[in-house]
Amino acid sequence: MLxxxxxxxxxxxxxxxxxxxxxxxxxxxxxxxxxAEPTPWGPKIALGFxxxxxxxxxxxASGDARLADSTLVVGASSGIDCRGSxxxxxxxxxxxxxPAGATSTFALHGAEGPPYELQLLTRDGVELVRLVNGADVxxxxxxxxxxxxxxxxxxxxxxxVVYIEDCPRLRDARVxxxxxxxxxxxxxxxxxxxRVTALLVYSYVGGTNPSPTPDAxxxxxxxxxxxxxxxxxxxxxxxxxxxxVTAVVFAVRRRDPRKLRPGHRK
Length: 266
What we know:
Blueprint: H1 2-29, E1 41-47, H2 52-58, E2 60-62, E3 65-68, E4 71-75, E5 78-87, E6 90-97, E7 103-110, E8 116-123, E9 126-133, E10 136-141, E11 149-156, E12 159-164, E13 167-172, E14 180-187, E15 193-204, H3 222-255
Antiparallel strand pairs: 1-15, 2-5, 3-4, 4-15, 5-14, 6-11, 6-15, 7-8, 7-14, 8-9, 9-10, 11-12, 12-13
Helix pairs in contact: 1-3
């Protein structure tokens, strides 16, 4: 009788270990969920490019730049200048698909110093993302012409950071506090167009950026890294759970080889 009670108790404890492991997995696998920090950015401009009056309030188009089907279409030798974005420090988020063979430039222009530029360009057949700050040039290989991607430029007192698909890829610490405005342009490439589907501009209000989830930015290919990161976390978590269960069952059976199975009745 005591052996049966002990066996049932051990099995209940085993089930509890498994339940707690599964329940706690989202938090130890993604510590950012429980360690979130306040953002240092406040909203300033939000453009979906589906309203010409809203666009005209913030930006001015030049050349063959126009709104079409809720998209900003920028042809060769064209661009926009968003005078409504003028500020000291800021965050600039946009989603876009850029043409290969041309140079798409997202720039912060100011009266003091050279512009800060995020460029999407092709060199020797290889698509690159480039951060240009005067003589400082930083590059990262990335295929930008295959689909719409998410980009973000953060200009803060600590420097410039370029994010691609929410992962920090390029940095430059040399910045000026002089006010700047945001602009978009396209050069070269012939009869092609840059298409931007959304633009969000934020003002800097002070504070510290929350760190990106570590597993989300490890892959060298941003277009697949998020899915790969999640997959490998689940594989690792499942393997750890299986090993834990196996170890507990082995220990229980070794201590009491005559233990009754749960629910067994004599």
